[in-house]
Amino acid sequence: MFDQWTRSELLFGGENIEKLHNARVAVFGLGGVGGNAFEALLRAGVGTIDVIDSDSFKLTNINRQLLATHESIGKLKVDVAEERAKLINPSAIIYKHAHFYLPDDPGDIDFSKFDYVVDCIDTVKAKLDIIAKCKELNIPIISALGCGNRIDPSLLRVSDINKTELDPLAKVIRKGCRERGIKHLKVVYSIEKPIKPLVIREDKPGEMHQRDVPGSSSFVPPAAGLLLAAEVVKDLTSFSEENRPEASIKLSELKGEE
């Protein structure tokens, strides 16, 4: 009997889909990267997802954030994520944490409950603390690095933090990991050289001025989120094309579903 997981089961096998249903994944940050990672994990069949983000949606989020619409402006991102989840998989369990995670203010986050952590936040000290906690508890984690000021999603890569290049954030995180004795960290990053964003100077009309506020595209952050979700799903299922559990789907049942 086919259901909304049928097409995934054809790739991963029924036993692996069941693993995803039973998994609990935390997504820190629901922006351009995290929002897409969240929805991809939800559609893949992850049964329980914790979403951690204190922010609400703003107009400037719409260009890249999947959960951002004109209707969601002003709403908490975790609330919108929960509403979205009910439309996609009503049986999914969503734990909301409308909290800005910091090392000295972690909120009610219990890392020991997670099977996997997806780090999509920008604050360096919080990012490093999340990574350190996961490594201490032996919880798999994958971190998103810089996606702003880039326009080519084909230059995104999945790698170990020690093999990254051309990413200023990667350099900072790599140093922080070394200081904490963390030898390895799976990351998604871009080998594209960041573009410097420009704005008009009020003091000199006609001239442009480089700003520290990053520009963003509608394709790089979402593509990074999808890469993160793909790695999580492959790791949770220990995916191997050569050694997949059987599907429960019969060929006759697929007629009319192609």
Assembly state of the chains shown: single chain
Give the amount of beta strand, in percent: 15-25%
Order of helices and strands: HHEHEHEEHEEHEEEH
Spatial strand order of the main sheet? 3-2-1-4-5-7-6
Shape: globular
| Count of individual beta strands | 9
Question: Separation of termini?
Answer: 14 Å
Query: What is the mean pLDDT?
Result: 92
Secondary structure: elements and pairs:
Blueprint: H1 6-12, H2 14-21, E1 24-28, H3 34-44, E2 48-52, H4 77-88, E3 93-97, E4 116-119, H5 124-137, E5 141-144, E6 156-160, H6 168-179, E7 186-190, E8 198-200, E9 208-210, H7 220-237
Parallel strand pairs: 1-2, 1-4, 2-3, 4-5, 5-7
Antiparallel strand pairs: 6-7, 8-9
Helix pairs in contact: 1-2, 3-4, 3-7, 5-6
Short description:
With 258 residues, the protein is α/β, with parallel strands linked by helices. The protein contains seven helices and nine strands. The strands form two sheets. It has a seven-stranded mixed sheet with strand order 3-2-1-4-5-7-6, sandwiched between helices. A two-stranded antiparallel ribbon has the order 8-9.
Description:
The chain has seven helices and nine strands. With 258 residues, it is α/β, with parallel strands linked by helices. The longest helix is centred in the last third of the chain and has 18 residues. Helix content is 32%, strand content 15%. A seven-stranded mixed sheet has the order 3-2-1-4-5-7-6, with helices on both faces. Strands 8-9 form a two-stranded antiparallel sheet. Helix 3 runs parallel beside helix 4, helix 3 packs parallel to helix 7 and helix 5 crosses helix 6. The relative contact order is 0.18.
